[in-house]
UniProtKB/TrEMBL annotation, chains A, B:
Protein name as annotated: Sodium/hydrogen exchanger
Protein's membrane topology: Multi-pass membrane protein
Pfam families assigned to the protein according to its UniProt record, in alphabetical order: Na_H_Exchanger
A biological process from GO: regulation of intracellular pH
Gene name per UniProt: LOC112288839
Protein location: Membrane
Organism ancestry: Eukaryota, Viridiplantae, Streptophyta, Embryophyta, Bryophyta
GO cellular component: plasma membrane
Length: 559, 559
């Protein structure tokens, strides 16, 4: 029985230590038991807290983690703080993939792709702007506040760390059904933003900059674009492969579990293959999720559909709760706090500097890019109003586990801070994350009511149907019609003709229409999808099913 | 980025090595990708192989793993054999719990408890008999065949290792609907047997015997009984707690995912708490599964029910496939084969000795204990016929991952064999497992047809309804009636009166009836269950659902 001395904070290492024979390392089992018990408590408490409308589940989890951290710290007389240390590998390998995959799987595709251009503007260009502002601000202010030994690479890393929006927390605050346009913009941006941040962060680390030239900016951009494109293609390819295999082999003939297993494993395969090819696993698994929900999900039995829908959501939910619990427990890492060698005044100064930089860095791209996006949209009811711009600005201020993970990656080695400056950077990151999640996060819902309530419902972009289910019934006959027109050799020619004229004013609409006829004519017959699977005869059953359970909205279970 | 030199065979360590920055340890990512790809291939191939009735999925997975092992060995010129080494911690912490939990969750409770006495006889007394025979046989034969340096503790360990039936493989060969009595006996025995073997193994290791006295046998028995009882109580307690929480808090009001998450996490909690208190996690999680399927499962929404039913089955399915793939790849551990210092003739002798001992050791308890069980059963149609006894004997001959895990635990430290004798013991264990799974496993289905086909259907114990679903409709009104009678203060008194007289001839039936009235009168009103949940109005929907999908039987998805 190999009982290594393990860093107990890393759960997989803890579990590896839980052998079948009695071990000297029984503390590890205690830690896992504590953690699993806390997870249960979080779910139960989170449910009870939901009565108080403004306390989000993430705040509950952070608070519970924080309290447990204090108890552990007190009972162990300050020795065990290291036990609860954040582990970025655990985060990136186990916790993030299910969250992002589920996000892609449950996202309203129509809404997402209709706002694709705006999402990309916010999620890619926006991050570049934000990184530039935060990096410049840090480089200017930090030496004046006692942090002198950081190099340009560290400042760039800080810029990236504090530009990574917490998409997980955004999901808990906004509601897909109440404000679909806002949700799709903020959430879509969050996912792309996560990927952009991680990719940028890698690019920055790879170049190991001592100085900063225009050539290197171009290099970063080029490398970013290449990564973005390849990751997307890989995710789409694996999603299509899963749809094709399940459609062709008709796995449910022998076992419905096999379908679910194949979907789950292929989703993870997309992530791990992206890592294998040095791509962005986050982007890959996100697009794999989108493709799987568009094709694969319609090729499986009704039981498999219910199971995957809720199973993936549950995995994501557990991972989210785990992360917030973790972040809360991690705030009390006394070793790092003891290493920090700057005065409380300077510390407060650093903290406020970063808060201001985050606020300014986000404002600097949300308002100009919204204007640009509005300029490109033809119809006035899909334009982003000023009130909505304020909400987009505000909802993206939260910083979460991605920031902490990147900070640990940059400023620690094996979990220990490399220097007093780095310890300060870590503790400030944790502080900013806790502050933004609790203060910004808790204030979002009241603010949204205050800012958006005076506006009419139509201004919120309510013109599109509320759920993919509604959407399904609204145009249920369309794919069938188009499918048959394709078979008789006359593909739907309408929207393609005056393409060039409309392209300049409303590029995403024309892309959407073109995609629809391509999808119905070529993709669905090959890869399956709604209306193209022989044993998909249960649309009505499905509708009854939803009507019978008003307790949960099928595609956004946590309101 | 902490990039430790990791034992690559352990998947969680591999994954820990898959960081977000480029690592020198990219081989680890390659290994995970390979493994995940193989899992996909196993599922697809397993599906296609199902056309050939007699090739079970486990054999496909072993074969695929074996071929991959050869390819890796050849391409790496013999160096990489260690990459694919079996990791017992991974097995016991990640792979076994979902399999055993799902077994408890999907088992036909009525069948299981009706045959409870017989199952306990086979699974507990049987293992003791088998261990005694194999230990004695090894102690007598092994020194004559070149293995001289083993002590009594090693022989006892070998006895335990080769008494652990592979319940996973049994599930794949037998069918719950075709032969319910056989299935329930063989499978029930398999689960209890797993737990007994592990508990016995621990007891043997703890005592660190140099000689062997009656006192120590008593000690082992006492420690075993205590463990068995405590583990069961813990599992039942956590299962009931989950039912109570979900019934009282009515989690689905806000989120159906929260119910599923709570069920999953509490199931794992039962396992990890058992480990915390040095109990048998396997037994605990098995009984937790039984209680959850009896109470908790009826307290959740229909969506949650479908999701947990298929979700747990899928997790179990993936874990099973993983194990067999692993066992197949592990057969080619050249390091250990090189360490073995005995002649091929002796090796063959050892191998045949063990095969004979396994056959004899199992026969020595199946036939006498079946006779004992028949003696205790009153009605002739629930007696175990001689043909069925042959099948029980045969179906339990397979040795699987539990044997390998225990062998690694006893004979290696950190994956390396401690001595040439120990290397021999490991390689022989792997050989026996492969042989028994492929030869005994593949022969079981044809044998079952040949032995059982001449018997009439009634002799197979077909008198009870086929699925829990049927059972549900057969007595759907009973719990409601009983529940109301309990509310008006007159609990169902019938079966309790003449208890003592019947108890001697048919103890399990009387226990069953007594339990039923206790369950309906006290347990269901408190913990929920079929017919006791306010929003459980979907029995008909459920029935339609099953009728609409004839492709899978709801409680035993892989036929």
């Amino acid at each position: 029985m190999a009982m290594r001395a393990l860093p107990v904070g890393s759960l997989h290492s803890i579990m590896a230590a839980v052998g079948i024979v009695d071990s000297g390392n029984h503390m590890a089992v205690v830690a896992v038991s504590l953690f699993v018990t806390l997870l249960c408590a979080c779910i139960v408490l989170g449910h009870m807290m939901e009565e108080f409308q403004y306390i989000s589940e993430s705040v509950t989890a952070i608070f519970l983690g924080f309290c447990t951290g204090i108890v552990v710290l007190v009972t162990s007389s300050g020795a065990s703080s290291h036990v609860l240390q954040f582990n970025e590998e655990l985060f990136f390998i186990y916790l993030l993939p299910p969250i992002i995959f589920n996000a892609g799987f449950q996202v309203k595709k129509k809404s997402f792709f209709r706002n694709f251009v705006a999402i990309m503007l916010f999620g890619v260009i926006g991050v570049f702007i934000s990184v530039a502002i935060i990096t410049a601000g840090c480089k200017f202010m930090f030496p004046k506040l006692g942090l002198e030994k950081l190099v340009i690479g560290d400042y760039l890393a800080l810029g990236t760390i504090f530009s990574a929006t917490d998409s997980v927390c955004v999901l808990q605050v906004l509601n897909q059904d109440d404000s679909p346009l806002l949700y799709s913009l903020v959430f879509g941006e969050g996912v792309v933003n996560d990927a952009t941040s991680v990719v940028l962060f890698r690019a920055v680390q790879k170049l190991a900059l001592k100085h900063f030239t225009g050539m290197e900016v171009l290099q970063i951009c080029g490398s970013f674009l290449q990564l973005f494109f390849s990751s997307t293609v890989l995710g789409v390819a694996i999603g299509l492969l899963s749809a094709y295999i399940i459609k062709t082999l008709y796995l449910a003939r022998h076992s419905t579990d096999r379908e679910i297993a194949l979907m789950t494993i292929m989703a993870y395969l997309s992530y791990i293959l992206a890592e294998l090819f040095y791509l962005s696993g986050i982007l890959t698994v996100f697009f794999c999720g989108i493709v799987m929900s568009h094709y694969t999900w319609h090729n499986v039995t009704e039981s498999s559909r219910v199971t995957t829908k809720h199973g993936f959501a549950t995995m994501s939910f557990i991972a989210e709760t785990f992360i917030f619990l973790y972040v809360g427990m991690d705030a009390l890492d006394v070793d790092k706090w003891n290493m920090v060698q700057i005065t409380a005044g300077n510390y407060f100064g650093l903290f406020m500097t970063l808060i201001v930089l985050i606020l300014v860095g986000r404002a600097a791209f949300v308002f100009p890019l919204s204007a640009l996006s509005n300029y490109m949209r033809k119809s006035s009811d899909t334009k982003i109003t000023f009130r909505q711009q304020i909400m987009i600005w505000w909802a993206g201020l939260m910083r979460g586990a991605v920031s902490i993970a990147l900070a640990f990656n940059q400023f620690t080695s094996s979990g220990d801070a490399k220097s007093p400056e780095y310890a300060a950077a870590i503790t400030i990151t944790i502080g900013i994350v806790l502050f933004s999640l609790t203060v910004f996060g808790t204030a979002t819902k009241p603010l949204m009511h205050w800012v958006l309530l005076p506006t009419s419902r139509s201004e919120l972009g309510e013109s599109e149907p509320n759920t993919p289910k509604d959407f399904a019934f609204a145009d249920f006959h369309v794919p069938l019609l188009l499918g048959s027109s394709q078979q008789t050799g006359s593909p739907h020619p309408g929207p393609r003709r005056s393409s060039l004229a409309v392209l300049l004013s409303a590029p995403s609409n024309i892309i959407h229409d073109g995609w629809r006829s391509f999808d119905d004519g070529y993709m669905r017959p090959l890869f399956g999808g709604r209306g193209f699977v022989p044993y998909n005869t249960d649309v009505l059953t499905n509708a009854e099913d939803d009507a019978a359970y008003p307790f949960h909205s099928p595609f956004h279970s946590r309101s």
